[in-house]
Inverse folding.
């Protein structure tokens, strides 16, 4: 044996450890849960509140009792929402855009409610549904077909008065 290697000797029993060493956990250590940024949580909260508020507003408007005018009242309210709708604001960020989107959506929902209550309001509901579908394809209220059908919906509202 060389002088640089230690001599190996058996370990006496009284020098052995009293208990076996703790075994490592069976699987890999659990990673800490990812932390979400406060901004992401706040944005999700705001979006949830806006969507929930819009849903409650439409449900409240649509579920009004018959003393509020029934189908005729829904048609008048649809036309009122439509008259306050400014197509150019639809793509605007902020409150103007939110107002435009909600008024357009309310006009569609209320016209559908009116048509369900009385068939004489089906042309209004159909015209607004056509506008909605055309806008979904073009994303442009300035498109000639979208504008033509939006004008038709306004004309139907004018004839209801």
């Amino acid at each position: 044996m060389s002088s640089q290697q230690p001599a190996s000797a058996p370990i006496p029993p009284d020098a052995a450890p009293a208990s076996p060493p703790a075994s490592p956990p069976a699987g890999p250590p659990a990673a800490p849960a990812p932390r979400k940024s406060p901004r992401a949580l706040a944005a999700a909260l705001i979006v949830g509140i806006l969507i929930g508020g819009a849903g409650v507003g439409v449900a409240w408007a649509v579920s009004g009792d018959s003393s509020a005018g029934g189908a005729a009242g829904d048609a008048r309210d649809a036309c009122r929402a439509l008259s306050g709708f400014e197509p150019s604001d639809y793509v605007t960020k902020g409150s103007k855009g939110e107002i435009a989107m909600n008024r357009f959506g309310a006009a569609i929902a209320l016209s559908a409610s009116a048509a369900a209550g009385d068939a004489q309001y089906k042309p209004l509901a159909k015209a607004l549904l056509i506008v909605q579908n055309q806008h979904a394809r073009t994303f442009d209220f300035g498109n000639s077909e979208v504008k033509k059908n939006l004008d038709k919906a306004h004309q139907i509202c004018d004839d209801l008065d």
Summary: The radius of gyration is 34 Å.
